[in-house]
Amino acid sequence: MFSRFRLSLSVLVGLAVVGPFACSQSGGRPGFEWAGDEAGAPEIDDTPEPNGFGPSSDAGPDDSGDASFVTCAATAVEAERERLPVDIIWMVDNSSSMAPAVAEVQAGLNAFANLIDSKGIDYKVVMLSKRGSTPTSNRHPICIPPPLGTADCGNGPRFFHASLDVRSTQPLEQFLGTLDQTPLYGQGEEYGSEPWSQELRPNATKSIVVVTDDNSRFSANDFEMFNGGKNPFNGSPSNPRSLPPGILHPSRGNQFKGYVFSGIYGWGSLTEPSTRCTYPNKTQPTASGAVYTDLVNKTGGVRAKICDGAAAWATFFDSVAEAVVSTSRVACDLEIPQADAGILDPEAVNVRVSDGTNPAVVVPRVANEAACGGTAGWYYDDAKSPSKVLLCPLSCEDAQSKGSDTPPKIEVLFGCQSVVR
C-alpha cells in the first residue's frame, strides 16, 4: 500500500513590482529591514554554510514570513513544482528455472504501470529480456500484453522491449554492454540486444529492477564504477567482449545519479547476505544474490524473495511502485509569475530554500549554471529577459525530498535587491 506522499511542493512567491510598491532601505542592503536591530542590518558573510544553503544570518525567524522581506513582499503567488519523469528498467533472467517468475512479470506489469500512473508520474518502462511467447526447454522469453505492450509483444507509447537473452549470472554485464552497444553486446549478437539507451530521458530519474534466481558475477562496485574496457569474465580471448564505464562513472555525468535498485531474487536472511531462501518444495535457488543485496542496500531499493512465489509478487510490485514515487524528484526551475501591475525588476529577486529539516535560508544569485561551482545559489534562464528561476545543483539537492514530515520549500521573493555572489 502507498503511504501518503506529496506530489508537489508549495512555492510561496512574495511578489512586488516596480512602480506602485516601494522597498525600504536598511543597513546598506536595499529592501531589507532587520527586526529588532535599530542600528541597521548586521554585517553579512555570504560564504555558504556547510549544509549547502548559504549564510544562516539570512534566515528569518521561521520558514515563512521573514521579517527582512516584509516591506518588499507585496503579493503572494502560490505555484507548484512538477515531478520529473521516471524511467523504470526491468531486467528478467530467461533461464529455464525462471518460468514461474516470467509468468508473474507478464501478468503483473500492467497493474504496476497503472499504479505509478495513478500517482501522476510521467513514467516509461524499459524491458530487458528475451522477447517472445513460446518457451523452449532451457529459455523462457517474456511477452508484455496490452495496454503497456501490444498483442504481438511489441512496444507502446510508455513501453520499450529490448530483446535480450539474459544469462543467469550476467545481468549487470549485459545491462552495461547493451546500454552502450559495446562489442558482442549489439543487436543480433549472442549477448546483445537492439539499442535502448535512446529510450532513457535525460531529465528522468532512474529505477532498475532485476528478477533472477542467481547471483551476478559482476560486483556491485563494478556495475557503478567500472572504468570500461575488456570484460573481466571474457570466455574467449580470441573473441573479447568489452564493457563501457559503470553507471555512476564520472564520464556518464548525472545520467544515473540517484538511481534506485530493486529486485526479486534468492536472498533468505535480513542479516546474512549469503543465505538463500527456500521454496515450498524444500529446494533452494542457485544463489542468494548477494551482489543485488549490496545494490538494494546502497540505493534504498526494495526486495522480495523469489522463493515466496505468487504470494510475493503483488506486494513486490506495490513496493517497487512506491519506491519509484517516493524517490522521484521534482524540477528545480520555477516560472517567474506575471505581475498584476508595474514591471518586475530582475535585480530585485531573492530565493530562499528550506530542505524540510533546517531553517530556510536565502541563497545568492550567480551569473549562470557554470558559476554555480559546488556551492548554493540560483540563476536566471536568460539574464537579459528572464522567465525562470533555476537552482544550482547543490541547492536543487537541498530542495528535494529528505523523507521528513515537513516537505522542502522554495520561496522566490520579489522586490528586495538581489543577494548576489
What can be said about this structure in brief?
The chain has helices spanning 99-117, 171-180, 220-225, 290-299, 310-327, 393-398; strands at residues 10-15, 75-80, 86-92, 123-129, 159-163, 205-211, 229-230, 242-243, 260-265, 303-305, 333-335, 349-354, 361-363, 378-380, 388-391, 409-414.
What does this structure look like?
The protein has 421 residues and is α/β, with parallel strands linked by helices. Helices cover 16% and strands 18% of the residues. The chain has a six-stranded parallel beta sheet with strand order 5-4-3-6-9-10.
* End-to-end C-alpha gap: 46 Å
Helical amount among residues, as a percent range? Answer: 10-25%
Low-confidence stretches: 1-65, 74-80
Mean pLDDT: 79
Question: What's the story with the biggest beta sheet?
Answer: 6 strands, parallel
Order of strands side by side in the largest beta sheet?
5-4-3-6-9-10
Q: If you compute it from the alpha carbons, what radius of gyration comes out, rounded to the nearest whole angstrom?
A: 26 Å
Portion in beta strands: 15-25%
Estimate the global geometry from the Cα principal axes: elongated
Number of distinct helices:
6
Sheet/helix structural class: alpha/beta
SSE arrangement, N to C: EEEHEEHEHEEEHEHEEEEEHE
Total strands: the figure is 16
